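In this section we walk through a basic example: taking a raw amino acid sequence and producing a predicted 3D structure, encoded as discrete structure tokens. The instruction is simple. Fold the sequence below.
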Amino acid sequence: MDFKHLLALLGDETLFESALLLAGVVDPDYVRLQLTRWKNDGRIYQLRRGLYAVAPPYQKNKPHPFVVANNIVRASYVSCQSALAFYGMIPENVHQTTSVTGKRPGIWETPLGAYQYRHIKPELLRGYRLTEVSAGRNALVAAPEKALLDLVYFQPQGDTPAYLQGLRLQNLDTLDLEKLESQAARFGSPKISRSVGVIRSLVQAEREYETL
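The resulting token sequence is shown next.
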């Protein structure tokens, strides 16, 4: 297979796994050699073992960082500041994509950006959904309520008014307080329970401000 055949096979896709090229081939070593050559030539990026991305100027679509994050570590979902920024709930632009996983934590530095993975207990791997993050592209992203609680969970003193006010949370009307409490109960954590009270007060303060 030459590089033109690879691009034709991928169509509009940018990410691909080596398994796509190895399926049914007679000489897998030749395919691996081609991948190494394309990577050394700067035509493709290797994101992790077996996962690649077409590099500019050959890529037809720039991959969304949330889609990349889901593919680097399969059993994960985007959460914390990354999800909150996506929903417009914090004003900062987040340059590192943070995900939650039941697997080992770590940071992946790739040509497409930095991707952080935080470990959480398997029973807390819930509260996320398949979300359209760009035209025709979907990724697993925490719901706003779970993204906020995940952030509190990982952040030392994340339940304090000082920390939560410091986030400069906005668009709090998008939060479903019933879902927030339901998700919080699953943590079984006093810290998370305390944070719900603080978040409720912030929601109330925003509502009162908007009525002035």
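Looking at the output, two observations stand out. The chain has two domains: 3-54, 65-210. The mean pLDDT is 95. In the next section we compare this with other chains.
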